[in-house]
Amino acid sequence: MTNRMQNLPQLADIDARLHELTKRLKAIPARLAEHRRPLDQEEALLNEVLVPWQTHEEEIRKRESTIQLAMDTIAKFEEHMKTVTNQTDYAAARKQVDEAHKLNDQLHREIQASREKQEQLAPELEERRERHGRVLEVYQAEEAKLLEEQAELEAEAEKARKKFAELVGPDAQSFLRYYHRLTNGGRLPAVVRVVGGTCHGCYMTIPPQTYNQLIANPDQYRSCSHCNRIIFYDAPEAMASEDPSAA
Known about the structure:
- The chain is of the alpha+beta class.
- It has two domains: 2-10 and 169-242, no CATH class; 24-155, Orthogonal Bundle (Helix Hairpins), CATH 1.10.287.
- 74% of the residues lie in helices and 7% in strands.
- It is built from five helices and five strands.
- The protein has helices at residues 8-81, 87-168, 173-184, 208-216, 236-241; strands spanning 2-4, 191-195, 198-199, 220-223, 230-233.
- It has a five-stranded mixed sheet, sandwiched between helices.
- A hairpin with a 6-residue loop joins strand 4 (220-223) and strand 5 (230-233).
- Helix 1 packs antiparallel against helix 2.
- 15% of the residues are buried.
């Protein structure tokens, strides 16, 4: 690839900034996960107590529902006992009522046992809930900061991409398409300087002929034979004023 274009140093600087913004954006999920780790640990500790407490609560509700069914059975057979005319039917109804009462007594004892176990768990459960709440507040604050940072980085990256496209202009769309192929393939940064015969994308030495051609034509760009990045030569006077970090 050989072509000419204005603003190559500016494009390289914008591309380097986009590379930095992309790295910072990609790091945010890992940073969020790091902040999330203490919260996950507290949730695990909380569940060690909360799950047994909830299990007892479910058992209580089930037994209370069974008690209600038993009470309905008692009421039905007690009403039936008022209308029976022979001893056999009365005895059968009486047996159903007695069994329902016996079942209710057993269920009440089991409910009481579950409530006692809940009471034993309650102090530790309250402590762990409070601790979990404090850690959750810290995480939510950090999450809000990181999401705000992410939004700012995305806005800056979008602004840089627009500026890059403006500098390229409508007459160099082939350059822009090639640039996007590089960036989509993970070649970041994609527009880099050649300094001392070295590509500052892969830091490999480019062929001398290519280097000499770039020196002779500073507004000319080519592709690196090693990494395929867009390379150009920046004249020494321009290099002297550039941000050292761009290299």
